[in-house]
Amino acid sequence: MIHTYRLGVGLLLLTAAWCAAGVDRRASAAEPIDIGNRRELFVDRLLIDSLDGARLELHHPQHVGVALRFDKPWEGAFCGYVTVLRDGPKFRMYYRGLPKSGKDGSPAEVTCYAESGDGVHWTKPELGLFEINGSKANNVVLANAAPVTHNFCPFIDRRPGVDPDQRYKALGGTAHSGLIAYVSADGLRWRKLQDEPVFRDTGWVFDSQNVPFWSETEGRYVLYYRRSVDGVRAIARSTSSDFRHWDEPVQMSFGDTPREHLYTNQTRPYYRAPHIYVGVAARFMPGRRVLSKEQAEAIHVDPKYFGDISDSVLLTTRGGSRYERTFLEAFIRPGLGWENWVSRTNYPALGIVPTGEHEMSIYVQKNYGQPTARLDRYTLRPDGFISVNAPYAGGQMRTRPFRFSATSDGKQPVQLHINYATSAPGFVKVEIQDAAGKPLPGYSLAEATEIIGDELDRVVSWTSGSDLRALAGKPIRLRLVMKDADVYAIQFR
Predict the structure, then answer these.
(1) pLDDT for residue 8 is more than 70
(2) How far apart are alpha carbons 380 and 386 in whole angstroms?
(3) Do 2-57+390-492 and 62-380 agree at the fold level?
(4) From start to end of 75-128, where are the E strands?
């Protein structure tokens, strides 16, 4: 299913979308955008000047089954705050284990671990690190560390020169404790970075999954975390050069959109375009009740956990203090079944990872507060969040002026690659224009090769060929003329 972009709802302006990835925040719309050799997705309107008959469309991940059941005695109905990491050929998963509900930061909370060779089939190794219920035969990587184990959130630190003994880092804690940093050499054996919390600020709350990562684009550690604004769950951001000392936090804004409770933000650099941070956030609707008492009893949900509902929404940001909500519609709906319409279910895991040549996976918690609590897997084509779409009648999109870069030595060909899909009668044709919108000789629509098919990486060509070295560094526009087709991303390389 897809939703059409609506001009009257959630139209987000370019001026707040500039990021540290090479777009000057002070630049005017008339100045060419320098995209270098980066892959650009159409998750926001940064590159889009006009749409004529075409539109932006939101694409929904497809449910493909259960990834992991929270069925161990130390896991249970209240497992949560899942993080998925791809570490070379191995996938790692971390999550809170909690059989019975209780106060945030209770001693019963532990951090559990699972691993996979493909992101599809997961196992829970018996690590022998902590004794739980009289045995060390378990998958627990952190225990007796409350309140850190309430929302322990790790990442792989890819900062150049990072100490190998601190290759894995994590934050956890509550408003009372502040955020406490942990480090690890292997992702399994964790220790405190320091006794004192690395981040504490009265007025800011942390009772959710607080998401840190190293940004290669910004050259800093970045943290997105929970803030409460007039009783509405919101998101704040801070950055750090050393993971110990953090800058003054800023509240994230969402442009001219309705205020909604965002329980988790799950923001991380997108692995194919790390200058774009993608968040699959849990939208929480407190007090919006679907189930009757009898229906809740039938699925054995905890009596305290069927008075609210939630789903998932898509957020993007290019750094700075603004998220783009190009679509307000749900990215992932709750789905069929009473079990999907209870409190704090449908919360997305942190981490969008490649699980095949033609797919990436997103994981979502299901059946929260129920004996059947689990994590499900959803798939989407790479770059497939939002596309420029044209219907059968046809349409076109024209970009703003931008520049792309030559290769480092300037001697290798530079080509335009697109991620696209068409129907059998559909097509995509690309015209290159100068900054004023005049077709460039050799790259006009009449000289463009008609593109038909469904490919993640197709080289665009014209009768003159595909090498665009002569245009590198010059301000140009693209005009995409399309019929029954989608274009998800472009890249010059």
Answers:
(1) no
(2) 11
(3) no
(4) 80-87, 90-97, 110-116, 122-123
Q: What's the length of the chain?
A: 493
CA distance 428 to 445: 10
Over the Cα atoms of the chain, what is R_g? 23
Q: Which homologous superfamily is 62-380 in?
A: Glycosyl hydrolase domain; family 43 (2.115.10.20)
Query: Residue 370 carries which side chain, given as an amino acid letter?
Result: Q
Residue of 410, 114, 85 whose CA lies nearest to 269: 85
Give residue limits of the domains in the chain.
Answer: 2-57+390-492, 62-380
Question: What are the respective helix, strand and coil percentages of the chain, to the nearest 5?
Answer: 5, 45, 50
Chain centroid to Cα 161, Å, comes to 26
Confidence of residue 205 (pLDDT cuts 50, 70, 90): confident
Give me 456's structure tokens: 């993640």
Which CATH number does 2-57+390-492 carry?
2.60.120
Of the listed ranges 15-19, 257-261, 269-273, the one predicted with least confidence: 15-19
Contacts of 143 (CB under 8 A, 6+ apart): 110, 111, 130, 132, 149
Rounded Cα gap, residues 89 and 425, in angstroms: 40
How far apart CA 85 and CA 210 sit, in angstroms, is 15
Q: Is 447 helix (H, G, I), strand (E, B) or coil?
A: helix
- Is the pLDDT at 14 greater than 60? The verdict is no
Beta carbons within 10 angstroms of residue 289's beta carbon: 15
Tell me how far the alpha carbon of residue 210 is from its chain's centroid: 14
Full 3-state SS string of 450-480: CECCEEEEEECCECCECCCHHHCCCCEEEEE
Q: The whole model's pTM is what?
A: 0.92
Q: Provide the pLDDT confidence category of residue 202 given band limits of 50, 70 and 90.
A: low
Alpha-helical (H) ranges within 13-161 are: none
- Token pair in block for residue 359: 């797919």
Give the confidence band of 200 by pLDDT, cuts at 50, 70, 90.
confident
